[in-house]
């Protein structure tokens, strides 16, 4: 049922090359509560996928719908195909692989993303997808057939670094944006999303919104310092903070750097710098958990002896509290008005992403916590600072997340690292939570 061309299955050097088939029935003699994932296999797949678009010094660059993203997708699909899973690709390029259950019910879904930022690590997103695959392979190899189907998905363009907004594929999956609207989004390099999907062979035909899962669980690295600092094994994620992304285009007057008196300038670089400093101070003043980032700064014409004609910059504001986030946005608007007036420039603001804070489902939160504790792991309840596909799935389904520690809290950086034992812990919690949910009756 795959809509994409599938590479040959022997591309991956599996030490256990026997092809798996799902036992038709009969699972009563398997103690599913005793199942454990294969940590070595998970680690091996993480590094193999990390080599696709690999960067010197570590990490990888697989911006959404680039050739490198296609190669990463092809590799993951090879593994999914080896397991004989039922594959579908939808009209925005999300790929879902499903293992049939004993009954034809809504599946328990896992997943995340495999696109990365341009200087990304090998764990962000990839862990959730490959751990989902590992959970399914573990279940298949045991001979246990869960009541409900189990699915693992990778969603298109979670990062939003090439095509805004972030979590785009999962946003379309849940029907909050149409595939047609998504196809018309233009990337930072001028490409149209629909054209890029087609170019890399991932414009599927399965319709969006997609099948509503029985529940959705995403394993992810924390990407922050909290778990490591507190020596906890597992983050029980309670929700995701609100995100506000804006692009500001500041237009002034290009002029000679040597001859134009300071009082006659309309300098967009000066204004952009003032805004960057304001964003930092605003976050400090509002206090944690408010954060504010100026991540891009593009001067035109970008020459040493020319007062720029224009600057394009982005502002990323986030907070777990919607009211404070709105306040931060309003204060930024006010500051832009003031500085625009005083320097005699224009500022055009475009919203690139705006998502309110999300709470995960209390039952899923409790299950993750109970399961982790039951496995002898230490836990901490925490909100997520980063955006995740699970926050979109939470609009239609019970959803939750499991975090594992990030060494030194580093992420969106080639030095991103999570210990293999932590990934294994997280995947084992995922396995048992999913097995549990998959036995639920309609
Ligand atoms: C996505 O990874 C984001 O939180 O920026
Ligand atoms: Mn991620
Ligand atoms: Mn990310």
Short summary:
The protein has 442 residues and is α+β, with helices and mostly antiparallel strands. It has 12 helices and 16 strands. Strands 1, 2, 3, 4, 5, 6, 14, 15 and 16 form a 9-stranded mixed beta sheet that branches. Strands 7, 9, 10, 12 and 13 form a 5-stranded antiparallel beta sheet that branches.
Name its key features.
single chain, 442 residues, alpha+beta, 9-stranded mixed beta sheet, 5-stranded antiparallel beta sheet, 16 strands, elongated, disordered N terminus, binds glyoxylic acid, binds manganese (II) ion
Question: Explain this structure to me?
Answer:
- There is one protein chain.
- The chain has helices at 39-50, 67-82, 126-142, 168-173, 179-183, 193-199, 226-230, 268-286, 322-343, 362-374, 389-393, 420-438; strands spanning 86-89, 95-99, 108-112, 150-154, 215-221, 234-240, 242-251, 255-256, 291-293, 297-300, 306-307, 310-319, 346-355, 358-359, 379-384, 398-404.
- The protein has 442 residues and is α+β, with helices and mostly antiparallel strands.
- Strands 1, 2, 3, 4, 5, 6, 14, 15 and 16 form a 9-stranded mixed sheet that branches. Strands 7, 9, 10, 12 and 13 form a 5-stranded antiparallel sheet that branches. Strands 8-11 form a two-stranded antiparallel ribbon.
- Helix 1 packs antiparallel against helix 3, helix 3 (126-142) crosses helix 12 (420-438) and helix 10 (362-374) packs across helix 12 (420-438).
- The protein starts with 38 loop residues before the first helix and ends with a helix.
- Glyoxylic acid (GLV) binds at residues 159, 166, 386-387.
């Amino acid at each position: 049922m795959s809509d994409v061309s599938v590479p040959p299955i022997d591309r991956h050097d599996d030490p256990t090359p026997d092809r798996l088939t799902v036992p038709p029935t009969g699972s009563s003699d398997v103690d599913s509560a005793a199942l454990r994932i294969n940590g070595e296999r998970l680690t091996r797949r993480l590094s193999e996928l990390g080599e696709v678009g690999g960067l010197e010094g570590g990490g990888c660059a697989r911006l959404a719908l680039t050739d490198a993203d296609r190669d990463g997708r092809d590799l993951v699909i090879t593994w999914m195909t080896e397991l004989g899973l039922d594959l579908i690709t939808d009209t925005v390029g999300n790929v879902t692989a499903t293992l049939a259950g004993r009954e034809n019910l809504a599946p328990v879904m896992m997943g995340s993303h495999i696109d990365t930022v341009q200087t990304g690590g090998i764990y962000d997103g990839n862990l959730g997808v490959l751990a989902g695959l590992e959970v399914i392979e573990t279940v298949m190899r045991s001979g246990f057939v869960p009541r409900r189907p189990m699915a693992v998905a990778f969603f298109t363009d979670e990062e939003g670094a090439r095509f805004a907004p972030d979590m785009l594929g999962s946003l379309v999956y849940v029907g909050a944006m149409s595939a047609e609207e998504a196809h018309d989004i233009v990337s930072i390099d001028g490409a149209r999303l629909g054209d890029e999907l087609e170019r890399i062979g991932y414009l599927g035909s399965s319709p969006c919104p997609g099948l509503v899962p029985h529940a959705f669980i995403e394993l992810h690295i924390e990407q922050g310092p909290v778990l490591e600092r507190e020596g906890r094994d597992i983050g029980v994620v309670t929700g995701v903070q609100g995100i506000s992304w804006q692009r500001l285009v500041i237009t002034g007057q290009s002029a000679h750097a040597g001859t134009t008196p300071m009082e006659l300038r309309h300098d967009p670089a000066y204004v952009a710098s003032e805004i960057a400093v304001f964003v930092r101070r605003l976050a400090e003043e509002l206090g944690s958990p408010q954060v504010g980032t100026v991540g891009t700064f593009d001067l035109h014409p970008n020459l040493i002896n020319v007062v720029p004609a224009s600057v394009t910059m982005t502002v990323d504001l986030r907070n777990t509290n919607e009211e404070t986030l709105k306040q931060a946005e309003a204060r930024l608007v006010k500051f832009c008005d003031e500085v625009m007036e005083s320097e005699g420039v224009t500022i055009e603001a475009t919203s690139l992403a705006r998502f309110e804070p999300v709470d995960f489902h209390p039952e899923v939160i409790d299950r993750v916590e109970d399961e982790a504790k039951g496995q002898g792991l230490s836990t901490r309840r925490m909100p997520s600072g980063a955006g995740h596909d699970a926050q979109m799935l939470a609009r239609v389904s019970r959803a939750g997340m499991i975090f594992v520690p990030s060494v030194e809290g580093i992420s969106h950086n080639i030095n991103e690292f999570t210990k293999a034992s932590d990934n294994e812990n997280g995947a084992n919690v995922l396995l048992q939570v999913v097995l549990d949910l998959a036995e639920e009756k309609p």
